[in-house]
Write a structure and sequence with these properties.
Largest sheet: 2 strands, antiparallel
Strand order of the largest sheet: 1-2
Strand content: under 5%
Distance between the termini: 40 Å
Radius of gyration: 27 Å
Number of domains: 1
Number of strands: 2
Structural class: mainly alpha
Shape: flat
Helix content: over 70%
Number of helices: 7
Length: about 210
């Protein structure tokens, strides 16, 4: 090996392979779709949080969905076949009230999922149109280059966190006599990339004022 070059071990090559896969994913998706995947997920959840209750109220007013589900659950609950009275109190609620609460929250959960999935799909379609416009010109190369860089950075962040939390676990496992854990810990401590990642994590903690 040429003097001055770091001596990579097996752990380093595994980490490099993962980062190469991240780069290929970013190159394929491009910056717009890589960032868009995160943005559309967050926005769809936010929209669902704000509007799921409005949708459930609308469905109740126009379809009576909660009362219909309440009736369905009441007719098919096993308690009815057992002959247990619906006015029986369980944890401060009658069984009838418990069934109604179940129907109430099932409808709201359904509305939440429906809004989240629908809005995510619509936002994803809009992103697809935007990416097509960008890829018509020289922006295509820039889009893919930035997507590659972003995907690699995401991979580095995730791997750094994995490394940071794995080392104490391996140390604890080695202390109780698991030899394989000790060997893996030694490999990781000798890894060039792991050393860099640990330094990056410490720098991030210091910069953000998160030292314990």
């Amino acid at each position: 090996m040429a003097p001055g070059l770091p001596a990579f071990n097996t752990i380093d090559y595994v980490l490099l392979l993962i980062l190469v896969l991240c780069a290929l994913t970013g190159l394929k998706q491009g910056f717009v779709m890589t960032v868009g995947g995160i943005v559309t997920f967050v926005l769809s959840i936010v929209l669902a949080i704000f509007y799921y209750d409005n949708l459930s109220v609308y469905l109740d007013s126009n379809v009576g969905i909660t009362s219909k589900l309440d009736q369905f659950l009441s007719e098919h609950t096993p308690l009815k076949t057992l002959g247990i009275p619906y006015n029986l109190m369980v944890k401060g609620l009658t069984i009838e009230e418990a069934v109604h609460n179940l129907a109430y929250w099932l409808v709201r959960a359904l509305c939440f999922v429906l809004i989240a999935l629908t809005s995510r799909q619509l936002l994803w379609l809009a992103l697809g149109w935007l990416e097509k416009l960008i890829n018509l010109g020289p922006g295509s190369a820039v889009n893919r280059l930035l997507g590659t860089v972003l995907a690699v950075l995401q991979g580095v962040v995730v791997l750094t966190l994995v490394v940071w939390f794995t080392l104490p676990v391996l140390e604890a496992a080695s202390a109780v006599g698991i030899e394989e854990a000790g060997l893996l810990q030694d490999y990781m401590n000798q890894s060039v990339l792991v050393t860099w990642m640990r330094a990056a994590y410490d720098w991030g903690q210091h910069t953000l004022g998160l030292e314990v």
